[in-house]
Design brief:
The chain is an alpha+beta fold and about 300 residues long. The chain has three domains: about 80 residues; about 80 residues, no CATH class; about 130 residues, no CATH class. The chain is built from ten helices and 13 strands.
Length: about 300
């Protein structure tokens, strides 16, 4: 079955199960790096907000024989029922810049991979990346969410990109914060979680072995979402480099986090670039990739550059 037919069948069955008081729609959503996902929304007549349920992975499971059409539809309905919002969300505040200016934050995306998206949104260049802007919202009905700022919004508000950046530079560290963890601590966290999940005993002897790891650190925000933007926080990288007593390699492990380690020789940097490319090609989803570049913080020039 082709994907178009699959989506239509899912939509029709969800419409039948939901009933006449619901509006079911199919829509394509452009994600990071030009990835376009096919989403389904289920909206009650008395609501103006709905979770988007992406059907791409469901179709892959169906095609691989891992799920029947009935199983897919049951899961879609279950996801909707767990995440639905049975009320209208008042979005009038979003039209008033004074109401949202203290919630503007930034994130980093790849410039080349997002060429089409960048035609419709305000952005600033940063090396081979683009700084783009969102409004971070917290609502008791939908939890934490963000709205990407488009050119139409800046025109409505009467502001320019410099104003967005000025606000985001103040707001992002305050709203999203940051965390720097040693790779040792991150691995311990993963291993402990795995042991707990599998019902296995945790062995503290693993700590001594991990203590021999390269002095590498993971930088992200407290939500661990779009955390690569922490690279832009005023003085964060420079202060950490000073504490380490070294220039820093900045490895873009994904849009969500960066790896920091003391800078070494040219041979080492070449190996790191190879690893970055391999991880991007084999380990990450396309929309999670930030860059194939290796960055370095130069403590003499006091700037981040592509190495």
């Amino acid at each position: 079955m082709e994907f178009t037919s699959f989506k239509t069948l899912v939509k029709e069955e969800v419409e039948r199960r939901a009933g006449r008081d619901y509006n079911v729609r199919l829509n394509d959503v452009m994600k990071n790096n030009g990835v376009v996902l096919s989403g389904l929304t289920v909206m009650q007549d008395d609501s103006n907000i709905s979770p988007t349920i992406y059907l791409n992975n469901y179709y892959e499971a169906y095609e691989n024989g891992q799920a029947t059409l009935g199983m897919v539809i049951n899961d879609v309905m279950d996801v909707y029922n767990k995440n639905k919002v049975n009320r209208k969300l008042d979005m009038r505040y979003f039209f008033n810049y004074e109401s949202i200016k203290n919630r503007i934050v930034f994130k980093l995306i790849n410039t080349e991979k997002n060429e089409e998206l960048l035609k419709d949104i305000p952005y600033m260049e940063f090396l081979d990346l683009a700084i783009v802007f969102q409004v971070s919202i917290v609502n008791e009905n939908i939890g934490a969410a963000s709205i990407l700022i488009h050119n139409a919004h800046t025109k409505l508000w009467g502001v320019d990109c410099q104003e967005l950046y000025r606000r985001a530079l103040q707001n992002t560290p305050r709203i999203l914060g940051y965390e720097i963890q040693s790779m040792r601590d991150v691995m311990l966290e993963i291993l402990r979680a795995k042991a707990k999940r599998c019902g296995e005993a945790w062995c503290d002897d693993s700590i001594e072995e991990l203590g021999q790891c390269v002095p590498m650190y993971v930088l992200s925000n407290v939500n661990r979402t779009d955390g690569a933007s922490c690279m832009l926080y005023p003085s964060l990288i420079s202060d950490f480099a000073m504490a380490m007593g070294s220039d820093l390699y900045i490895i873009p492990s994904s849009v969500h986090e960066l790896l920091l380690l003391p800078a070494g020789d040219a041979d080492e940097s070449s190996s790191i670039r190879d690893i970055i490319r391999e991880v991007n090609e084999t380990q990450l989803l396309e929309e999670e990739i930030l860059s194939d570049s290796l960055y370095i913080y130069d403590s003499v020039l006091q700037e981040i550059k592509i190495f």
